[in-house]
Structures are given as C-alpha cells and as structure tokens.
Amino acid sequence: MENRMFSFWFNQSIAWVCLIGCLSIGSIQAQAPDFQKMTPAERTAYMTKMREASQADWQVMMDKLSLKLPTLPPPAEDPKRPQHLKQKEGSTNWFDEAGNNHVRSGWGNWTNYDDAKANDYKLLNPLVLKNGKSVKDAATWWKQRRPEILNDYLTEIFGKTPENTPTVTFAPTGTDSTVLAGKAIRKTILGRIDNTRYPSVNPGIPVTYYRPVNTSGKIPMMVIVWGSFPQPMPSIEKLIDAGWAVALVNTGSIQMDSGAGLHEGIIGLMNGGKDRKPDEWGVLSAWSWGLSRVLDHFEKDNGINAKQIGIEGHSRWGKTALLAGALDARWAIVFASCSGSLGASLEKRNFGETIDNVASSGEYHWMAGNFLKYGGHWDAMPVDSHELMALIAPRPLFITGGTKDLWADPKGEFLACVAASPVYTLLGKKGLSTTEMPTPDVALIDSDIAFRNHEGGHVDILDWPTFLEFAQRQFKLKK
C-alpha cells in the first residue's frame, strides 16, 4: 500500500498542476475544477476524491484480470527491507544515506540503487522471431518482427488505439508578438475533438506555437509534450535561437493524468464513459494519438518542413515521446529525456523505477489494463524498452539521463540504446559504437541512436544544446 500511496501522491501532485494549466482553455475539459478559487481544505477534499476514484478503478481492472496483491508485513517488520534504510521524521517513506527514496511495491519488491544487484535479468533479442528464427534482413524486420513487437506493446503494455477516432479541427485563438523579447511570434491554437458520440465529455488539444521572427520559408519544428505550467521557456528559447519552430502541447486536456479521469477525456469519449477493457488504450497512448493529430495540422503548414518535425518529452512525457515515435513514423526525430521505466530504461533491470511502480494505482492509468499482469512478474513481460526504441528505427533517436536522477536509471537507458543498436545497423543506420557507459556530459551523437548522461538531476534543459547538434547533423542543417 505504501508504494501505491507514494506513487499516487507524486503523480496527483503533478496532475493538480496540469489541471490548473487547463483553466485557460475555456470550455475544453470543463469538468476540471478551478483550483485557484478553492480553499486548501477544498483542494485536499478533491485530491482525496481523486485518490479514491483512481484506487477504485485500479481495483476494478485487477478484478477483471483476477489479480491479487500478496499479503505483506508492515515495512518496518519486513525481512526483505534493506537494513540501511531509515525513515525521516514525519515521512512514511524510507531513505538511504545518500537521500535516495526507497519504496516497497505492492508486490513486495523494494527499490534498488545498487548496480551490482540490478542485472539478474534476461535481455530479449529484438532480432529473433517468436518462432525462434533469426532476423537477417530488413524485409523480415518490417514484415514479421516489427509487427510482432508492436502487437505485444499494443495488446499487453500500452493498449490499442480504437478505430474510428473522432475528427479534430484546429483553429487559432490568439497571437502575441512580444514574447522572448520580440524574437518569436506566439500563437495559441485549439484542436476541438468532435464529441458527438458522447457529449458528456469535451476533451481538446491546446497547442502553443512559437516561430522565430527572423526566418522565412519552411523550417524544422519540435513538438514538446507538456502537461503543466509554467511553460518551459528556456527550452523554447534555445530552439527559437537555433531557427526552429516549437509547438507545445498540453496533454492534460486530451486525457487527465490520473486513473480518476479514465471515464472522461478522449478515453471516456471513445468508451462512452464506461470502464476500459484490459487491452484498450491507456493515457500514454491517448496522448500519443493527440500528438499525431497535432502532426496532421503542422504537416499542412507552409512554414514548416513536414519532413523535419520532431517530438520531445521529459519524464512521463519522455515515455510518451518514445511511444508516439514508435506508433507514428512521421515523427522525423525523437528526444526522450529522463523517461525511466516504460520509457527508455530496461524494464527487467531492477534499478530505480520498475514495472511494479508503474503498475501501482498512481501510475497504472498510463498503461493498458493488461500491463498489471506483469507487476511482480517482470520476466513474463514479452517486450523490453530496447524493443520500443527499435520500433523507432531507422529514424534518429536521442536518449538522455542525469547522474542524480537514479530513479530513471540512466545506465539502464544506455544499456537499452546498446541493445537497440543492432536493429539500427540492420536497417542501414549506425548504432552506438561503444558498450561502455560514457562519463557524464560526454555525448554519443556520432550514430543514429544517441545518448547523453548529463551531470545533474531530473531535467531536460541541460541536453537541448546537444540535441540541436545531433539534429543538425541528422537533418544536415546549417549552424
């Protein structure tokens, strides 16, 4: 229970910020309350209600799959608890001497930050078919192996995007030519999702678009996956200064980042407000669908080079960027920052965030219901993160971590890049040239799958200059 409570608190704190960010969107996602007008007691009551709703939905899916958590002793009495962990006064969580947070999952597994204890897993081979035959050419990859991997991800991990999704109509809602000291024009755009089939919900796709004023013709663009405010202006400014356009997408209005919102948003719209089936899409897939609709819009923009539109996300949005890149081949380049488990780090490697944590009631909504089967049973999961990366091949992919962001397991992210490299090589591209973890701030960008572990924590701002250098090489842009 303590891990589920920790995960819920962390994720709903972010969800709260995301919901505040939705307030400026007018009628879109009108079910979100105005937190700015609520008293502290009212906010607490609302968050308690969200927690209870999320927990209830999680339990419904567990029951559908006939899954039960084991009975565990109190953490303080747990013989599996690492003995060096201590509780801080006023906290229910456990910490090591370095200050790293340790949680026990609902399946009884404690967080591990010891690399010597992290590697008891079998790495799946992305170039071996389910029938045991090796993939020796690109044709076999495209016709057989890639569809196998994709099907596993859709049915077991992230969920299937439904057919006949509604149309989205984009329209401008405002313009500002004073941002970034006049270096850029900012336009707000709203994608209205046709909700005729279930008018009780009203999701939308709010986009904030920035374009440098000193450019003409078609220029490259990055779509930044974002779900909270304030907007990441330092990142936007770096792209503007480099001559790129930027589109910032607010994911919270596509689908709430909480299990309490699964009967609303685009998921609720498609389900008519009913519970999900185990193989139906989770929040990350719903966000990816919305991002593809943004791509639809900007492909038609005469000021944007449609063959040079990339996607970036950080943390849970880094997971989303990877998934979006795997599902839609039109994304020309993908940048996933500090994305952790079910992002870039190897899932079956026991370090930092794990499958168990994502399967908790605070994070399960990102995934298909079927994903819950792998809580406590990591080896049974049919795919691993290097295969998600392989679905993006041969397009350029930039993966980053931080030395102080152990929860996201930067070494596991690097090892996944190494394991995905043979697929890039098979498809005529260049994989990583080393199997040795690089020293901090040393970027591996001479290949089509790139990696950097910055000196620092859970941020993406430190890696944008390196990404731009990587992208300039890939797109052959002038500096």
From TrEMBL:
Segment forming the signal sequence: 1-32
Domain 4-O-methyl-glucuronoyl methylesterase-like: 280-428
InterPro entries to which the protein is assigned, alphabetical: AB_hydrolase_fold, GCE-like_dom
Matches recorded under Gene3D superfamilies: alpha/beta hydrolase
Keyword terms: Hydrolase, Serine esterase, Signal
Region of interest (Disordered), residue spans: 69-98
GO MF: carboxylic ester hydrolase activity
Keyword Signal (UniProt): yes
Biased composition (Basic and acidic residues): 77-89
Coiled coil: none
Full protein name: 4-O-methyl-glucuronoyl methylesterase-like domain-containing protein
Species, as recorded: Spirosoma endophyticum
